[in-house]
UniProtKB/TrEMBL annotation:
Keyword ATP-binding: no
InterPro entries: Enolase-ppase_E1, HAD-like_sf, HAD-SF_hydro_IA, HAD_sf
UniProt cofactor note: Binds 1 Mg(2+) ion per subunit.
Protein name according to UniProt: Enolase-phosphatase E1
Annotated source species: Vreelandella piezotolerans
Encoding gene (name): mtnC
This protein's UniProt keywords: Amino-acid biosynthesis, Hydrolase, Magnesium, Metal-binding, Methionine biosynthesis
Amino acid sequence: MSQSTVRAIVTDIEGTTTDINFVHNVLFPYAYAKLPDFLCENAEAPAVAEQLDAVRRDMQDPEATLEAVIATLLHWIDTDQKVTPLKALQGMVWADGYQRGDFTGHLYADVAPALRQWQAEGKALYVYSSGSVQAQKLLFGYSDEGDLTPLFSGYFDTHIGHKREAAAYQRIVEALDLPAESVLFLSDVVEELDAAQQAGMQTLQLVREGTQAGTRHPCVTRFDEIHL
Ligand SMILES: CSCCC(=O)C(=O)COP(=O)(O)O
Ligand SMILES: [Mg+2]
């Protein structure tokens, strides 16, 4: 990493800022439990109906019943599929959980101080996650460390493309209007880092407890090991 040239940092969430176990053992089961009733009660609401139609398109069955759509969504949660309408609906369900205080967004202890320091140093901070932009804002807005959303300049989800495709990172660079080599991408997933590197970004792999270091990208175990 050529540290002096970093002008913006784009961070992944799961496995990077946030424990994978929080996502898989708190958020996903909450959505699994609450989604059926939420959809039965809100299927006619325009924002929900739009996502249900998108699920039917992905199922290649425009006439699929609500029951069949719900079964598909639950299967996608079970198999951790990063399907855009599922992610949008999960975000809507999690909003209730955060607002009721059922959980707060997990952040590793080293994350908030580093984000604050980088922002104070003039770096622009962005999030790129498979979770919807609404879900990202909720996690950082209702985080263990309070509302961190003022630290971020923007959020990207799968509407910009999938995280293992270089084209998604090219679009992010265009949106940031910065040279690709001045943007640093942080993730725990080597394939995501490969894609960001192909788009010209700098990369750093977060190797949190329980995850494996790769060999293709520089590695750190905590945000406070990153000196820009
Ligand atoms: C935005 S919090 C929920 C994260 C999520 O739904 C997910 O699938 C994790 O994706 P990531 O790209 O952050 O690994
Ligand atoms: Mg990740």
